[in-house]
Design a protein that fits this description.
Strands 1, 2, 3, 4, 5, 6, 7 and 8 form an eight-stranded mixed beta sheet that branches. The longest helix is centred in the N-terminal third of the chain and has 56 residues. Among the domains are: 53 residues, no CATH class; 157 residues, 2-enoyl-CoA Hydratase, Chain A, domain 1. By secondary structure, it is of the alpha/beta class. 50% of the residues lie in helices and 13% in strands.
Amino acid sequence: MSDNPWGEKPTEEAQSAIHKVKSGESNGREWRLIENLVSGLFSEQRKARRWGIFFKSLTFLYLFGLLGFYLFTQQESDSSADSDGEYTAVIDLQGPIAADSEASADVLVGSLRRAFKAEQTKAVVIRINSPGGSPVQSGYVYDEIKRLRALHPDIKLYAVIADIGASGAYYIASAADYIYADKASLVGSIGVISSGFGFVGLMDKVGVERRALSAGENKSFLDPFSPLKADDKAFWQSVLGVTHRQFIDQVRKGRGDRLKESPELFSGLIWTGEQALEKGLIDGLGSTSYVAREIVGAEELRDFSPRLTPFEEVIDRLGVSFATEIATRIGLSSTLKLQ
């Protein structure tokens, strides 16, 4: 007879009975003892399984209870917001502006459309805290703001700069009707940059030979492993110059005669909010709450920034790492798309 498969050590009486069965000296008593032992082990296993099922069920009931509670409270808050009258819609622009970021044109345009479409929106505020990024993504958002303002002339759009609103972020802000910032905010950086590295000297030191074959004389243009050609540098500088001019034109269109033109204004320099006010880059000093309360006249703020789905928010609050994988696999994770 093999060792006990349940990993529990039999009692001395049970061991004696097993020994007698192996040696052929057993009688009915030993067999009954072994049957009772096996029966007891099966009974313990069943109890363990029942308790396991009970606690797993309790965990899932707890999770789904939280989800149900969140949905209920969210529905209540949405309905109360709808019935409280006009509000100031707020959209966050946070971090670098790029196609694959939370500050992409897809995300921001979708939020802007929802905010302008909502019946009780009195004004829209873009709350900016971004160093800038892609001129293409910034241009998309700029154009959409102008389009929505033409469709909804009664809804003003304000840009409020927190810590920083520079480069592409200021590009977007310049489309607003009015721009506000804190006195210590960083504002401006109206310029274009393209940076990289050259590894020619390093390759010479380590004895590496560059082999690049191309069809088209400029296909290896700006190759970091080849010496920088004067013609390539001049050409790329012209591209940056065109992009810079486009940036300047859009800022001038957005700000109009409020700008105090000077040679340094479009040089890529950045200023504090207090300095930016003197240069006409912003219209006043104040926070989002200040703008909603004192300028718009609708103190209640309603966030139209993209949000997690209820399931994802419960997961985020609980910090249950494995549930994120479950959400992805069963299709409950949301993806941000252009609306």
